[in-house]
Structure formats: structure tokens, C-alpha cells
Amino acid sequence: MEDVWVEKYRPRNLSEVVGQKEIVERLKSYVESKSMPHLLFAGPAGTGKTTCAIALARELFGEDWRMSFHELNASDERGINVVRTKIKEYARTAAPNDVGFKIIFLDEADALTPDAQAALRRTMEKYSRTCRFILSCNYSSKIIEPIQSRCAVFRFRPLNPEAVKERLLFIAEKEGKKITDEALNAIYYISGGDMRKAINVLQMSAAISDEITEDVVYKATGLAKREDVEDILITALKGDFITARNQLQRLFVEYGLSGEDIIKQIHRLIYELNIPDHMKVRLLDRTGEIEFRMVEGANERIQLDALLAYFTLAGEELNL
Question: pLDDT by residue (tens digit) across 272-290?
């Protein structure tokens, strides 16, 4: 069975991590001093939080890093009993290394219940001599203030296009695949700065063809091309509602997309339309309302037709 490229090409040390230069430099200082406080990694998915935690452990503890690094996913085990049993029992034992402490990596820590976080606060304080905690979360606001105040906070941001493309080119070369610039742009557009998603899209595309083009990427992901969705919006704004609606129906039929998939792409493209900002505000407001109706169970085709009708009426004011 083919390897999962996300794991196969996970950086082995901090120097290989891309797109988070400032964070990497701060973490390297902990490696040099062989000391670190409790850490809180916050940011969107796929930006390197888990990778940095593992790379930090590898550099601190060497080849036997797994003996001193314990990973838990709080979304699987989120109650107070997990903190009182598994976490506490591991934290209280002596460190099997010459650094003097172990690391507990608590992924998706924002899924912990408030009671579990309160219990974790005391555990972090009591066993700080033998154990350091790295908490990873998407939303730091869901972590109680007493825990945040005990941690050095690292805020990860979505990766920039250059960092994502550099890593994708590296992987493609290692796997003997050719990839075009248009395909790289398409993968970044789809991933939105999420490196994990970008690598998965690359692997899905490579399974279809050894030469990865823009068409292959969209075929692999089952998403509509950016240009196709943009053309629908522009056609509606120019007043040709019927043509825009027919183009929309083709997206449903040819790509098998759901209404939520399409409206997410519409939302992203509104910012790029060459129209006045006040009109973008109105279109975004209506798009949000339509998306809410669809989530609540309204018929997605009727709602998207209604959105295109609103675009058409708005376009009459702009005289496009």
C-alpha cells in the first residue's frame, strides 16, 4: 500500500519546517538551552503545530525521543478522568533522559471540558520539574486563562504560497512526478494555506497522472475550477441570469458538488471581483444569509438560484 505522503514527508527537525520562521527560531533557542516552559500552539489546521512539537522533541531528546514524548488527542479523551489518570500518571514519573524532563503533547486541547482544563492547570503546576506540556489548539480563546498564563504562546498562521509551493515541488521531485505552475496555484487555492490538505491533494492528483496539471488537480479533488465559478458570478452581475443559472446547474451535474461546496467558493471569489467595496459588502451579507439557510435545511438549488438572482439585481445598479 502506498505511503501517506503527509507522514512520509513530515519534517524530521525544526530546520525543515517551512513557513513559520519566527516560531522555529524561538523553538531552536529552547533546544540550545535544553530548557523550555509549557507551550501553547494556536492556529488553523495544517500550519505545522504537530510537526513543530515532534521536531522539537526529536532535537531535544535525540534518537530515543519517543520514550520522552507522549501524545494524546483531547478530542478523543476530553473528560476530567483522563487528566486525573493518564496525564497525571505519566507526568509524575521521572524523565528517562539527560535533559531532565519529558513532554506531553496534548493535541486539540480546546476540546477539553472546562473541568478537565481546571484539573490540567494544577497538574501542569505540580509536575513541572519532570514534565513539560505542549498544548495544541485551533482556538486559543477556548483555553482557560489560568492555563494560557502558564504557557508561552505561539500563534501559527496559514502558510504563504511560496512556502507551500516549495514543499510541494520537493515532494513531487522525490516521487518522480512533474507538476505545472498552474497546478501549484490550484493546489494552494484549494488548500488555503493548509499544508496537510495541500500534500493530500498532491497525492490524490499523482494517483491519476504522473504529470500533474491544473485539470488533474480539479479532477482529483472534485471541485469546480476557480475560473468557472468566477464566470458564473460575472455573468449574473452583467444581467444574464439564465446563462448564469445554466452554468451553475452544470457544476452540480459535471462535478457533483454540493451547494455548500459551491457557496464556499463563491464567498472566496467575491473579494476578488472588480466591483466597489460597498457592493462586495452587500453580496457577502446575502451570501452569508443563503449559506445559513442551506445549513438549516433549505433546498440548496433554490437558495443558490436566489443568490444568483440577487447578483443580477445588484449588477443592474452597477451597469456592468
Answer: 898 999 999 999 999 999 9
Q: Which three cell numbers stand for residue 18?
A: 517551512
Locus of grid cell 466597489: 276
Contact at 8 Å (CB) between 41 and 154?
yes
Residue 2 pLDDT more than 60?
A: no
Q: Where are the beta strands (DSSP E) in 146-206?
A: 151-155, 178-179
Q: What is the CATH number of domain 226-318?
A: 1.20.272.10
Q: DSSP code of 253? A: I
Q: Which amino acid appears at position 23 of this protein?
A: I
Cell of residue 126, nine digits: 505540580
- Count of CB atoms within 10 A of residue 251's CB? 20
> Band of the pLDDT at 232, cuts 50, 70, 90?
very high
For CATH 3.40.50.300, the residue range(s) in the chain are: 5-155
> Is 73 in contact with 171 (CB distance < 8 Å)?
no
State how far the Cα of 202 lies from the Cα of 195, in Å rounded to an integer.
10
Locate the DSSP E strands across 19-166: 38-42, 69-73, 102-107, 131-137, 151-155
Tell me yes or no: is domain 161-221 CATH 1.20.272.10.
no
* Residue 249 identity (one-letter amino acid): Q
In angstroms, rounded to a whole number, what is the distance separating the alpha carbons of residues 274 and 268?
Answer: 13
Q: Per-residue pLDDT averaged across 86-91, rounded?
A: 78
What nine digits make up the cell of 240?
444574464
Positive or negative CA dihedral for 302, 305, 309, 310? positive
